[in-house]
Design goal:
heterodimer, A: alpha+beta, 3-stranded antiparallel beta sheet, 16 helices, B: alpha/beta, 14% strand, globular
Chain lengths: 450, 170
């Protein structure tokens, strides 16, 4: 049991229910071990730490032998309502000092508390304390039908609402043995790739903006806006929330939708080469990006890093290909991989993915099958695992259905594995590089606070 | 070189530049004039605090600053410091873990302070309403002057709401 509990295979997620601890490995292999006296054996994989902390805070289960037992969500448990930073002793050496940022950040972003230990400008250590966005989402999804719970899945991380809705729908459909109609899977992929385009454009621009390059930020946020407007014209919502539902999609693409989407992606495709050239040609910008926040492939492999972060550090994993889901099998998707692992590599991955997404959206819109768009989920019982590749990486959902309602569910956003890598990457540079490193990884807060 | 590219952008016409809905833009400009210099007097600085959102509202708040909506044309800016802020803008469900931080941000702001709840979650908890780990809506933390509902509200709705606040309280 212990051997299979610890792998083999790349770790994806860990969670517990009342009686059992579960670990999920690529490409979707579920192993379990019973919980005895409120405890289960900790996993050796370093990426499991956050999941084990979360299981402790939400279910009270102890991972025996875990090195990291800090709270994930329940911080303010001291009698006076404060919380200690047990892992963050006072600066000891000469010239060392702390900088604490948050939970309210300077920009318009989600809350989290970052504590830096610095020597001069060099970051020696970063600890990200999360949980400030904890909304009890998983608890709210239990006891609801898949269709009702889909509204929560769509709001686990708003910037990847399609990917979360899709992973949730895949899990519910797997549990019920439901195969959504081809037009639905096509439309889902159009929305998923639109979401990827909007976020990649926005992320690349934001990195440039943080390096003082307002022009790229302005142009790329203009494109993000065009994509959101096109999404509204095509699907009635700028972020396309609540449209992907278990069984299919809630509404068909509007008559003028394909034209609106094509106009937005045409404009992005037209301007992208000149924007890319600015990135590549401007030495002052490249100087900020190359060799900054490097995550070596070996570390990315140890954490089984996924998505943009993994692919920029030599990890090939892309859930659209492995395990894969319709309609990507027919789209000849090429998922780019780089080895350098720095901020510049993560930008290059995003740029390459933008080109692929544009191509696939065109293919999808040209070949929309003429079928119905949704099947009603039957009231069934079963266990399902679903995955969808968000712009960050794979979102995994595990759920159990009993007579048509969700009896238990767990959702793993790729950010869960990216946060510790951000903590590492921050220590490769000076504090002033942190905004660039942070934006290039861009982990979700709400996605892990659950 | 970057200068060449920028020059090319400046000189060559872009493919069909998009604009904010001209009707909305005209209406907002007219209202801004009506609210006028005596009410606005100076620019209004907004401090945003995310109190347990899904980050959807943050995306749309950021979009108010893009080239299409260009929030600053109305004299409205986001500020990193609560000490410089006239408006406290709250998104999210009022997560229990953010209560202390929201109160501290409010306490750091110079009076008078206008407060806005943006998004359905900040209005009353939204879809998360019955969760035991939230207090449910910005009003559960402090009195709110204006709510802008929507999940998330669009950038145009957010700007409209901010201008409505100016008109009412200028």
């Amino acid at each position: 049991m212990t051997e299979s509990w610890n792998g083999p295979g790349n770790f994806i997620a860990l969670w517990t229910d009342a009686t059992t601890a579960y670990a999920l490995y690529q490409p979707g292999r579920l192993v379990s071990t019973p919980i005895a006296e409120n405890a289960y054996p900790a996993l050796a994989n370093p990426a499991a730490a956050w999941f084990q902390r979360l299981a402790h805070d939400t279910n009270g289960h102890i991972a025996t032998g875990a090195a990291d037992t800090r709270p994930a969500i329940e911080h303010f448990t001291a009698p006076d309502g404060t919380s200690a930073w047990p892992d963050f002793p006072a600066p000891s050496g000469e010239g060392e000092h702390h900088v604490s940022v948050g939970p309210i950040h300077a920009a318009i972003i989600e809350p989290g508390n970052f504590r830096f230990l610095l020597l001069g400008e060099q970051v020696l250590k970063l600890e990200a304390r999360l949980g400030y966005s904890h909304k009890g989402t998983l608890a709210l999804m239990r006891g609801k039908s898949p269709r009702l719970a889909a509204r929560f899945a769509a709001r686990i991380s708003g910037d990847s609402t399609i990917a979360h809705s899709l992973a949730f729908a895949h899990a519910a459909e797997a549990a019920l043995g439901l195969i959504p109609p081809p037009r639905a899977t096509h439309l889902r992929a159009v929305m998923a790739e639109m979401e990827r385009l909007a976020n990649h454009a926005s992320d690349i621009g934001a990195i440039a903006g943080d390096a003082g390059f307002a022009f790229l930020d302005s142009r790329l946020s203009w494109h993000r806006e065009s994509l959101c407007t096109a999404a509204h014209a095509a699907f009635g919502h700028r972020l396309m929330m609540d449209i992907v539902i278990p069984g299919g999609v809630a509404g068909d693409i509007k008559t003028n939708g394909p034209a609106a989407i094509r106009a937005a992606i045409d404009a992005l495709e037209t301007e992208l080469p000149s924007l890319t050239r600015i990135f590549e040609d401007y030495a002052g910008l490249q100087d900020r990006l190359i060799g900054t926040g490097t995550i070596p492939p070996a570390l990315a492999e140890a954490y089984a890093a996924t998505g943009v972060v993994g692919r920029a550090s030599g990890q090939k994993q892309d859930a659209r290909l492995t395990p894969g889901y319709p309609p990507y099998g027919t789209l000849a998707l090429i998922s780019p991989v780089e080895q350098e692992g720095d901020v510049a590599a993560r930008i290059r991955i995003r740029l390459a993915e933008i080109a692929e997404s544009i191509r696939m959206i065109r293919d999808l819109l040209a070949t929309l099958p003429d079928t119905e768009i949704a099947l009603a989920p039957p009231s069934g019982t079963g266990i399902g695992i679903g995955v969808a590749e968000s712009f960050r990486g794979p979102v995994w959902v595990w759920l159990t259905l009993e007579s048509g309602t969700i009896s238990d569910i767990f959702v793993a956003d790729p950010s869960t594995i990216h946060w510790p890598l951000l903590e590492y990457a921050a220590t490769t540079g000076i504090l002033a590089d942190f905004p660039l490193i942070n934006k290039s990884i861009n982990p979700s807060y709400s996605g892990v606070d659950l | 070189m970057v200068w060449k590219t920028i020059a090319r952008h400046l000189l060559s016409p872009l493919p069909a530049p998009r604009q904010a809905d001209p009707a909305i833009a005209a209406a907002l400009t007219a209202r801004l004039k009506a609210a006028g210099a005596q009410k606005l007097g100076r620019s209004l600085a907004v401090r945003h605090v995310a109190a347990g959102s899904c980050n959807g509202c943050e995306l749309e708040l950021r979009a108010t600053q893009n080239l299409i909506y260009d929030l600053t044309q109305y004299g409205l800016t986001f500020t990193p410091s609560p000490r410089h802020a006239d408006v406290l803008l709250i998104t999210g469900v009022a997560a229990r873990n953010m209560l202390v931080a929201v109160r501290e941000a409010r306490a750091a702001m110079p009076d008078p302070v206008l407060t806005i709840a943006v998004g359905d979650c900040a209005v009353d908890g939204g879809v998360f309403k019955s969760s035991p780990v939230i207090t449910g809506g910005a009003e559960s933390i402090l009195p709110i002057d204006l709510v802008i509902s929507g999940c998330p509200p669009t950038p145009a709705q957010i700007i409209e709401g901010l201008l409505a606040l100016l008109e009412a309280h200028g």
